[in-house]
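Researcher: We're teaching a course module on how sequence relates to structure. For the next exercise, students receive a sequence and then see the predicted structure as tokens, so they can try to spot secondary structure elements on their own. Here is the exercise chain.
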Amino acid sequence: MKKQIIATQDAPAAIGTYSQAVRAGNTLWVSGQIPLDPATKELVTGDVEAQIRRVFDNLKAIVQAAGASFDDVVKVNVFLVDLAHFALLNRIMAEYFREPYPARAAVGVATLPRGAQVEMECIVAL
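Model: And here is the predicted structure for the students to work with:
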């Protein structure tokens, strides 16, 4: 199966040996996004809410670059440094997605790249 790399300047460039997203057939695999501002390449400062919103905005930009929308997302994986922010994540996610919601996992982790508080990746059906 041929792979197609998806990239956009509206989301942060990869900070390692990976692509923003890879399309294989009718599936888009979006790499983990941390709250980096695509313009400055710096971690979003402020509270966890600002970081969660930036991550959703980064994911959305990549999904749109593939010609899809959040309505096409079938799975979201969330990594939180502090699971106490789980309720906040749910509230914000409900602003970005509508029912029927995608499948999701939320995992507590000890640390994330660049000191981020949240990282997310998603799978999209095209």
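Model: If you want an answer key for the exercise: The first strand starts at residue 3 and ends at 6. Residues 6 and 21 are 5 Å apart (CA to CA).
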